[in-house]
Design goal:
heterodimer; A: 261 residues; mainly alpha; B: Alpha-Beta Plaits; 6-stranded mixed β-sheet; 14 strands; elongated
């Protein structure tokens, strides 16, 4: 545990001493702020015009503005994450191998599990820190909504995006452990993300294969969270996904000793 | 302290290390000498647990480097070929990280770091980012990293590469100072380094051990004959003939003939015979002016070349 902490500190230090963390957090902040503004304006306008039509034709049609904005916003977050995570994880092992510092880690009295967990938690922490400022937008919307929507919707949404991020981080770091080249790591990670993303392409089909594939899609499980629904099967899916890829990364780092032939 | 038995490492069809066996006693400095690609780095990587051997065993303090890897890694400090540093970290925070992963207890960390900085004379750079350091300083930080947990065994892969002559001397002093309390293996392809710092030398070539001995024994034993260098003002052919007649002279080789009539020759004698006075007598008898006459001790360099160069390349060099 002490070794995991040592690795974690080193990784976080690396993110914050170099411009990496600031670039990621700053960029994410600008993009999400812009889109939040666009979504909020659009939904409010939509709701106003719906109200006008309601008055004209005598049918009242209420639009739940916070829920609509949140659904759009969490949808956007998942898309941004798809593009940003590969860049975040590409160097985690690839850089270490290229610099020769893997030799230091692997000849120190720490286990592969210590290395992998420390690095995974650090990447995930950076991801979480990147998301943190977006909470203020939604909290602002909540405070100014009347009636205030239930907080659990917001909590579920964040739980969803954090789980999704953890999945992609575990997959991305695994791929980074397979190669010395950061570009290859990023490209492969992006391709793998797209693959687990579009697995639900046959969601309207009833065949057994389509059902299984749809279940395996990372984004399918995410939708429930954005609507405030925490489904146990989704939770199990995400946690299994994370555990699987963290485990594979440990095996992959362990096999580096043997692969150097 | 370190026992290596029949260690072999094959990369596919290429055998990088071929049945290597040697031992290192506690407190000793062992030099690993060989041309590039001889298998020095591979052997060190196996000893540090970085990669497994194909066959054979290696033990450090009684622990097998493969099956008890963690125990071994607790006891070693290792400087790989390239210093394993993080450019974005400051020297101090880097050493602090290394101290943590080497399990230095929290209350001893600060003292150990200060000590490692002092030993490698990097104290004035402790707050500097590693990427701003010169190559020599990076190398020293690499050495500091190998010392920070005060390990029993220190393994240094080419520790003086990239240093300037003054720093090289400092590092050699440092290594000598560590002996006694630490057991050290260092690899190098620089010969004087071995004769200056090491108690014993392992000469390795193409994965095989060519010789194991003290630097002194290697110099005296392996080259049995002695050599005398003479500078005389005499005609070349006559000189060669006259010196060849001296009893005990095996070979006369003209080194250079100067325009002013001086000729420099090397005379090799038969093993164990000192023929300097006979040579001098011969020259004086002929009435030639003698400018220089001295015995040349065979350097480690010659032995090294003899051991690591095969006959075909000897023949090529002669042609």
């Amino acid at each position: 545990m002490k070794n995991v902490w040592a690795m974690y500190r080193k990784e976080m230090g690396h993110y914050f001493v170099s411009p990496i963390a600031y670039v990621f957090i700053g960029l994410f902040l600008i993009l999400t702020a812009y889109f939040f503004d666009v979504f909020l304006t659009a939904v409010i306008q939509q709701s106003l015009s719906a109200e006008m039509e309601g008055l004209r034709y005598g049918m009242t049609q209420n639009i739940d503005v916070p829920s609509e904005v949140m659904r759009a916003f969490f949808g956007l977050l998942s898309t941004l994450v798809l593009f940003i995570t590969p860049i975040l994880t590409m160097g985690v092992y690839a850089e270490e191998r290229k610099r020769g510092t893997m030799e230091l880690l692997m000849t120190s009295p720490i286990t592969e599990t210590d290395i992998v967990l420390g690095k995974f938690f650090a990447s995930f922490s950076l991801f979480a820190l990147m998301l943190l400022p977006t909470f203020s937008y939604l909290a602002f919307m909540y405070v100014h909504s009347d009636p205030m929507p239930p907080w659990r919707v917001l909590v579920a949404g964040y739980a969803g995006i954090l789980l999704l991020g953890a999945c992609l981080t575990s997959l991305g770091t695994f791929i980074s452990s397979l190669t010395e080249n950061q570009i290859i790591a990023a490209v492969l990670t992006f391709a793998a993300f797209l693959l687990v993303w579009v697995l639900d392409i046959g969601r309207n089909s009833t065949s057994a294969v389509a059902t299984v594939l749809t279940y395996l899609s990372v984004i399918r499980h995410y939708e429930g969270f954005t609507q405030g629904i925490v489904d146990t099967s989704s939770l199990v899916y995400y946690i299994s996904f994370i555990v699987l890829f963290v485990f594979l990364t440990i095996r992959s780092v362990d096999s580096m000793r043997w692969r150097r032939a | 302290m370190i026992e290596v038995q029949d260690l072999t490492k094959a990369y596919g069809a290429v055998t990088a290390v071929d049945h290597v066996s040697f031992t290192v006693n506690k407190g000793e400095i062992l030099g690993f000498l060989g041309p590039n690609g001889a298998g020095k780095t591979t052997t060190m990587r196996i000893l540090t647990g970085f990669m497994p051997a194909t066959s054979g065993t290696a033990r450090i303090s009684g622990f097998d480097v493969f099956s008890d890897s963690l125990e071994v890694r607790r006891r070693i400090g290792y400087l790989p070929e390239a210093p394993p540093v993080y450019p974005d970290m400051s020297v101090e925070s880097y050493l602090e990280f290394v101290a943590r992963i080497k399990n230095v207890p929290a209350d001893k960390r600060a003292a150990r770091i200060t000590d490692a900085l002092e030993k490698t004379s990097t104290t004035d750079k402790r707050h500097e980012l590693i990427k701003r350091l010169s190559r020599g300083y990076k190398q020293r930080v690499g050495i500091a990293q190998a010392l920070v947990h005060d390990p029993d065994v220190i393994i240094l892969d080419e520790p003086t590469v990239g240093l300037d002559p003054k720093q090289i001397i400092e590092v050699r002093h440092l290594i000598k100072g560590l002996a006694g309390t630490h057991t050290i293996i260092l690899s190098t392809h620089i010969l004087p380094e071995v004769s200056m710092t090491c108690d014993r030398v392992v000469i390795i070539n193409r994965g095989k051990i060519a010789a194991v001995d003290t630097p002194q024994n290697l110099t005296t034993q392996l080259k049995s004959g002695q050599r005398v260098r003479i500078e005389v003002g005499a005609p070349e052919a006559a000189l060669r003939e006259a010196l060849g007649q001296v009893a005990g002279a095996k070979r006369v080789q003209v080194e250079s003939a100067h325009a002013d009539g001086h000729v420099a020759v090397n005379v090799e004698s038969e093993p164990g015979k000192d023929i300097r006075s006979q040579l001098a007598a011969k020259i004086i008898e002929k009435g030639w002016p003698l400018f220089e006459l001295r015995g040349v001790s065979v350097s480690l360099e010659d032995i090294f070349l003899e051991l690591t160069t095969d006959d075909t390349s000897h023949a090529q060099a002669a042609n």
